[in-house]
Design brief:
alpha+beta; 27% helix
Length: 156
């Protein structure tokens, strides 16, 4: 599988982002949904990677710059045919390496507190992310779990 920076123009990537946003609707009230839409993901402070299996899109993940040393993980989504096949782990590993090489020393994320998001929380915990207080512009929210990791030689 090939992981590369994406320009968010392919039908496959746009469709997976749409699916990601639609999956959020039944999980939390609108004020607790923090996924970026297509315009947000195209911002100058965001880099999105797509993982391709030949011509099939396997998954996506993005980093949003918060400061010179701190970035946020956004829009991690695995395409349905690739669920439970290691796509998210490979994307996360890649993004952590890219973050470290870009000078970031901390990665943070927001995900849901509901059961639906348990696999995501378990994935991040398996990489060493720990729960933290809200960061950036986030506020305390019972529908959100905030996690962070400080990147060092052992984790990137």
């Amino acid at each position: 599988m090939d992981i590369r920076v994406d320009d968010l123009r392919s039908h496959e990537v746009i469709e997976l982002i749409r699916e990601h946003l639609e999956a959020m609707a039944p999980t939390a009230p609108p004020e607790s949904r923090h996924a970026l839409d297509l315009d947000g993901l195209r911002g100058p402070d965001v880099t999105l990677w797509a993982m391709w299996d030949g011509v099939e899109l396997a998954g996506i993940g993005a980093l949003k710059r918060l400061s010179q040393t701190h970035a946020e993980i956004k829009s991690m989504k695995t395409a349905k045919p690739y669920l439970r096949r290691g796509v998210a782990s490979r994307l996360l590993s890649h993004m952590m390496r890219e973050a470290k090489s870009s000078g970031y020393s901390q990665l943070s994320l927001e995900t849901g507190s509901m059961e639906y998001f348990q696999p995501a929380r378990a994935l991040y915990a398996s990489f060493g992310f720990t729960q933290c207080a809200p960061f950036g512009d986030y506020l305390e929210d019972p529908n959100s779990v905030f996690m962070t990791i400080y990147i060092d030689e052992a984790s990137a």
